[in-house]
């Protein structure tokens, strides 16, 4: 399955799409640990990627991450299913790893969020083992939660999973909650001490709400784990008129399977259902009028509530429960046919159930029909990175758009690679255009520079040492570059130096850096301790499937 989904990755280069931006060597600097003036959306994932780039190039790291997503999601769902039979496990693997959710988030480039998707089955296994007092469960829970906590959303899902699945008033529960909270500490520390504040544009609630993918509406799309807000990242097969019909059949097959799951996991299954229901309610909040109004108020007045605007991303627990229910439902039907007809009939049903996700979403194969195709960075990027490293200073990236199409990426929309490619703070526009609507960003610095440029002022007035111009579309007028000195004029990039700019690099204050570093170190020590503990214990319970 992994080979079929990620087949284009055998080609050299980097898969660049929207938020998925890997570079040859991402520098490790304070901007990765404590962003100077923006919300920590990429904390701690950027720091982890930069640290990993010390031992491996970006192209290899990207392939390891993407392979881990598909492989661990499939294997985790198979291991979690409470059955002794192989074919139902195969059904669970395909039902969880071959989904619209995975395809759409891959096309949106949110690979770090998909690590949380892949880790959830393993986190549930570890939480169940910890609940049962099995040896080595706590360190395995920490290891399963660590990749999820690379992003704020994944960290919150991991924390909610532990809080819901484990019983209260137990030492093991307190230890697990404390450990997973510490894994979330890097982005929490950066958010609480940063100048950006926690308020977001309420316009984003409507723009990031789940959307319909065919005639059946947004609720049915969500029920099938689809419904992402960005229509450009929806596989073509999701527009088929038959998709809602097959989705209803899948749900109907899952109902008896969920009842069977309750029987096999007495008590524990209900907690998992609560977690899934909570995620589904967050997903539909943006499309239900009263909930949407409440959400609009929250993103303005409650710090950090902007994380809830894109509610569809919280479908992860629901997708897992749906996969388990569908696999057990298929197993129950196959068992009845085994008794009433012939054992071969039951195997045919299970094989058909395993192939149903593929039939429903055939274009996930081969990199979502070739859309995950690697490209190469032009040589301009290496030249610009070298010039900036020689004379460090803040960089203003123009055109002032965070996402843009580039000729060298085959016109695929990509987030500006400059913040990850250059070893310096890079100022980009964090506002997001969704169709004709612009959702305001949260960075005060970006907002002030955007206003300056909109007023027709030269870029030198922003006070940055460097101005990077991406050639091809929307290049700035000559007056915007007045007072700057051209130091590199390439095919795809121009680099201009501002002689009047201050020499220092703008970074977070000493206090913020100390807090951010302490949070990252504590999270790293907890993960390291969990790995050492697991090695010393020699626990292999993850590899022994449980049938009840």
Automatic annotation (TrEMBL):
The keyword Transmembrane belongs to this UniProt entry's keyword annotation: yes
Segments passing through the bilayer: 60-81, 109-130, 142-166, 241-261, 273-295, 315-335, 347-368, 515-537
Q: Does the keyword Transport apply?
A: no
Domain of life, per lineage: Bacteria
Keywords in UniProt for this one? Membrane, Transmembrane, Transmembrane helix
Annotated protein name in UniProt: YfhO family protein
